Amino acid sequence: MTAHDPPLQTITVTREAVCSADDQMNPLTLAVPLPDTAPLSALVDAVLAQPFLQFSSSHSTITGVASGVAIVRVHAGLFRTRAEFLLAPHTPVRECVPKGLIDFAWVRGGSRPGTTG
């Protein structure tokens, strides 16, 4: 790192297991180092570059939530995953993930995590 490089931030990414075997066999936490100026799209690209998010036939869309706000949905595809940004992809990570934690969860019935219905 040189004096001109932006400082790094480490974002903690967690995910809900897709099934009980996944819960036991695969990591549910990922640390992603990014420049302090990185956009949301860079964080999502870094997560998708890892074999971290897991899907099944009944669980094909997972939602990334930071500070109680859904910011991205990831859809499983036949050959690759696709991100649907719920905030502008150029939004700085430090603004949309202010606590340095994003949790990917299965949203059921259209409700947000932490709500009922």
Structure write-up:
This protein has a single domain (8-105), classed as Ubiquitin-like (UB roll) (Roll). The chain is of the alpha+beta class and 117 residues long. It has three helices and six strands. Strand 4 (69-75) and strand 5 (82-85) form a beta hairpin. The chain has a six-stranded mixed beta sheet, covered by helices on one side.
Succession of helices and strands: EHEHEEEHE
Q: Radius of gyration in whole Å, from Cα?
A: 14 Å
Main sheet makeup: 6 strands, mixed
CATH-assigned fold name? Ubiquitin-like (UB roll)
Structural class: alpha+beta
Q: Order the strands across the largest sheet as they lie in space.
A: 2-1-6-3-4-5
Total tally of structural domains: 1
Unreliable residue stretches: 110-117
- Regarding quaternary structure, what we see is single chain
Level-2 CATH architecture? Roll
N- to C-terminal distance: 48 Å
Q: Considering DSSP H and I runs of 4 or more, what fraction of the residues is helical?
A: 10-25%
Tally of DSSP helical segments: 3
For this structure, what is the CATH class? Answer: Alpha Beta
